């Protein structure tokens, strides 16, 4: 089975950090860390099954989204050898805004 490399855009990395800070302020840094690690683990799984998300060309050409734990939407693009995480949206935030930066 082919394995795709998984990479993160600068925007996606910043969104993950913002999400960590938000959860840490509302709950606990350990809870936030574990939550962020679960999100990253889910992103890494896309390297094995990259086409499992929902196509969202209406938001960005080639964009696919995957819901995670009913609160997070991961936006990503698949190319010839990699899956690029372009955004991580939390709690029903504006998806178009979360993924507009692309790569």
Blueprint of the fold:
Layout: E1 5-8, H1 10-26, H2 29-45, E2 54-55, E3 63-68, E4 72-78, E5 82-90, H3 95-99
Parallel strand pairs: 1-5
Antiparallel strand pairs: 2-3, 3-4, 4-5
Notable features of this structure?
single chain, 5-stranded mixed beta sheet, RelE/ParE_toxin, globular, alpha+beta, RelE/ParE_toxin_dom_sf, toxin-antitoxin system, Type II toxin-antitoxin system RelE/ParE family toxin
The number of helical segments is: 3
Mean pLDDT: 91
Outline the low-pLDDT stretches.
none
Total strands: the figure is 5
Structural class: alpha+beta
Protein name: Type II toxin-antitoxin system RelE/ParE family toxin
Pfam families: ParE_toxin
Keywords: Toxin-antitoxin system
InterPro entries: RelE/ParE_toxin, RelE/ParE_toxin_dom_sf
Give a verbal description of the structure:
The relative contact order is 0.22. The protein has a five-stranded mixed β-sheet. It contains three helices and five strands, in the order βααββββα. The protein starts with a strand and ends with a helix. Helix content is 38%, strand content 27%. It is globular and about 40 Å long. The chain has helices spanning 10-26, 29-45, 95-99, and strands at residues 5-8, 54-55, 63-68, 72-78, 82-90. By secondary structure, the chain is an alpha+beta fold. Helix 1 runs antiparallel to helix 2 (29-45).
Give a quick precis of the structure.
This protein is α+β, with helices and mostly antiparallel strands.
């Amino acid at each position: 089975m082919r394995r795709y490399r998984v990479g993160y855009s600068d925007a996606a990395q910043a969104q993950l950090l913002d999400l960590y800070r938000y959860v840490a302020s509302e709950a606990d840094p350990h809870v936030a860390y574990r939550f962020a690690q679960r999100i990253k683990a889910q992103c890494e799984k896309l390297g094995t099954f990259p086409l499992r998300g929902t196509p969202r060309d209406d938001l960005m050409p080639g964009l696919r989204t995957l819901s995670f734990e009913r609160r997070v939407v991961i936006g990503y693009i698949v190319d010839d050898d990699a899956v690029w995480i372009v955004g991580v949206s939390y709690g029903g935030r504006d998806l178009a805004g979360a993924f507009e930066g692309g790569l």
